[in-house]
Specification:
It is built from 11 helices and 16 strands. With 346 residues, it is of the alpha/beta class. The chain has 2 domains: 2-152 and 295-343, Alpha-Beta Complex (Quinone Oxidoreductase, Chain A, domain 1), CATH 3.90.180; 156-290, Rossmann fold. Strands 3, 5, 6, 7, 8, 15 and 16 form a 7-stranded mixed β-sheet that branches. A 6-stranded parallel β-sheet has the order 11-10-9-12-13-14, sandwiched between helices. The protein has a 3-stranded antiparallel β-sheet with strand order 2-1-4, with no helix packed on it. Helix 6 (184-194) links the parallel strand 9 and strand 10. The two termini are 13 Å apart. The model has no long low-confidence stretch (mean pLDDT 96).
């Protein structure tokens, strides 16, 4: 079969031919219908050799959807022909966090060598993929896999971040979204759907801010130091009750901290390497700073329900598997509008 792989440190991903996977006991074989392109892929492919721990060659794609092709011994919850989305943050299934459905915070994954698809295990950017356990599959329930595959990360990650801050986002409150790309433009829609907050979106150019307006942001600002005063003005001097930084570089993290209101939340979702000093006088009183990771399986079900209701829709560009390297070139250049989706069996 064809697959998109990262094969050498510092190289760009390439389409190669590899053997078809064979399903084992407890596993599920999918014919892949869609796979999402993510900045996390760019992050790991940019790591130097001494920091790279994901194995080579690596079949990319941690956002996946497919049709069940075959099941291994002991699998009873899905059957061939089922249309499913892949829950990506695989865990051990035994620890306290996994028992709560929060495999994204599995306590044993690192020690047991458990890696998500596309981030250590073979991913979805191939004609077929193996899912290690049926519990990591969620029914699509009639959703178009191409339009909605990105929700497995670009929807689930902001949903998890926002849901934790919901007690602070009732009527009359303000939420700031920094970065309106793949995750941020979905985050804006989630905020509008499940919170009472007014949404202010920040990004670096007007094209990205136009997308933010299209998906529901009530105010847009260029992401620069002037944005802090602008947010204070829009909130009557109070600041934002919650700030969600989907970029995570040092300048955006500092903006987030500066515009957070007393008792506000700062949630650093982006993996740009920024850090926010926390201490008396560094941020407003009782500001909470979090750095969450992905989301739970139950939250993925809720995100797909939002999509089914029409409350959330991902802006996508589509590519065949042979065109996948071009998608990563556009991602690297910051030229993707929303999210890029690979259709391996187009």
């Amino acid at each position: 079969m064809k697959a998109l792989q990262y094969r050498e440190i510092g190289s760009r991903p390439e389409v190669v031919s590899i053997p078809d996977p064979v399903v084992g006991p407890g596993q599920v074989l999918l014919t892949v219908t869609a796979a999402g392109v993510c900045h996390s892929d760019e992050f790991i492919m940019g790591l130097p050799a001494e920091q790279y721990v994901y194995g080579l060659p690596l079949t990319l794609g941690h956002e996946g959807a497919g049709i069940v092709e075959a099941v291994g011994a002991g699998v009873s919850g899905v059957r061939p022909g089922d249309a499913v989305a892949v829950y990506g943050p695989w865990g051990c299934g035994r620890c306290l966090m996994c028992a709560r459905g929060e495999e994204n915070y599995c306590l044993n994954a690192q020690a047991d060598g458990i890696r998500p698809p596309g981030l250590g295990a073979p991913g979805a950017m191939a004609e077929y993929m193996i899912v290690d356990d049926e519990r990591h599959l969620v029914p699509l329930g009639g959703l178009d896999p191409v339009k909605n595959v990105s929700l497995t990360d670009a929807g689930l990650t902001p949903y998890h971040a926002i849901k934790t801050s919901l007690p602070k986002l009732g009527a009359g409150t303000t939420a700031v979204v920094i970065g309106t790309g793949g995750l941020g433009h979905v985050g804006i829609q989630i905020l509008r759907a499940i919170s009472g907050a007014t949404v202010i979106a920040l990004d670096v150019n007007q094209e990205k801010l136009d997308l933010a307006t299209e998906v529901g942001a009530q105010h847009t600002l260029l992401s620069n130091p002037d944005a802090v005063a602008a947010v204070r003005e829009l909130t009557g001097g109070r600041g934002a009750n919650a700030v969600f930084d989907f970029v995570g570089v040092q300048p955006t993290v500092e903006l987030a901290g500066a515009m957070a209101a007393t008792d506000g939340d700062v949630t650093i979702v982006g993996i740009g390497g920024g850090a926010l000093p926390v201490g008396f006088g560094r941020v407003a009183y009782d500001v909470a700073v979090r750095a969450p990771y992905w989301g739970s399986r139950s939250e993925l079900i809720e995100v797909l329900d939002l999509a089914r209701s029409g409350a959330v829709e991902v802006e996508i560009e589509t590519y065949t598997l042979d065109e996948a390297p071009k998608a990563y070139e556009r991602l690297h250049a910051g030229a993707i509008r929303g999210r890029a989706v690979i259709i391996p069996n187009a």
